């Protein structure tokens, strides 16, 4: 029998192991980086016990389980408000049976794993590993995550749109270009703090639900993650100016050949010029010119995503109950 063990680590202790396994995964996301998860934990972790578990088999490292415990419920670190994807940090199929052997010593009744993408090994392999322990497993559809596979050129991208959407996008771009001088820029280390204030102000102005979203803790999180992602060269905070006036903003992350569109805002008085949609189109064009492969519009079925040519993928919630069948 292969010895199974696991060590509960701090973020600092796990960093090198985490980074190694993350780099080996066929798929991972910026939400799975230690920087992202530690930023969330530093603000929201007070009500949880950290269960950052290094899964081992005969001293062989299989991966990291970034979990948290609250009232006998184990979850991924993070929530669905600030994370669009969750997953374990592993590239080894043996991770899943070893995970359940390792966490037997923890007092949990439910393991609730949200935002697991349908292409993840966790979605396909974890249920059978849980059933082998005699646990109950429920799989629930959670949300869509629309995205665009990027072609080599902007003209080819436009050719992917249906006739109506292509006509409308060209019309809106032309109308905005005719309104004055356009300038698209991205934040840098010098402008970041001022641009973040501008971005959050535009978020709050553009939609009531975004205004309600921006409570102090979430503002602190956005501030923290923007700085860390800027330091890692993942942040792309786009600001669109019309006649030297900022009119819309878009926070993206370029990670693993993908541009992830995290949040956006615009100045309400310019809404009639479709400044938000046009900025997203400009960001698609920039992603194509940057030779990125995928434009991920993240969770939610908002209509504009499909007008830009996005196609749905799905994320799911996996719930494992420890009670015996």
CATH domain topology of the largest domain? Aminopeptidase
Could you give the count of β-strands?
13
Q: According to CATH, what is the class of the largest domain?
A: Alpha Beta
Structural category: alpha+beta
Shape: elongated
Account of the 3D structure:
It is a single chain. The strands form 2 sheets. A 7-stranded mixed β-sheet has the order 1-2-3-4-5-13-6, sandwiched between helices. The relative contact order is 0.16. Strand 9 (235-242) and strand 10 form a beta hairpin. It has 325 residues and is α+β, with helices and mostly antiparallel strands. It starts with a strand and ends with a strand. It folds into 2 domains: 4-144 and 314-324, Aminopeptidase (3-Layer(aba) Sandwich); 147-307, 3-Layer(aba) Sandwich (Aminopeptidase). The chain has helices spanning 11-24, 34-44, 95-102, 121-132, 154-160, 163-178, 192-206, 208-213, 216-231, 275-289, 303-307, and strands at 4-9, 49-57, 60-70, 73-76, 110-117, 135-144, 147-149, 182-186, 235-242, 245-255, 258-266, 294-296, 314-324.
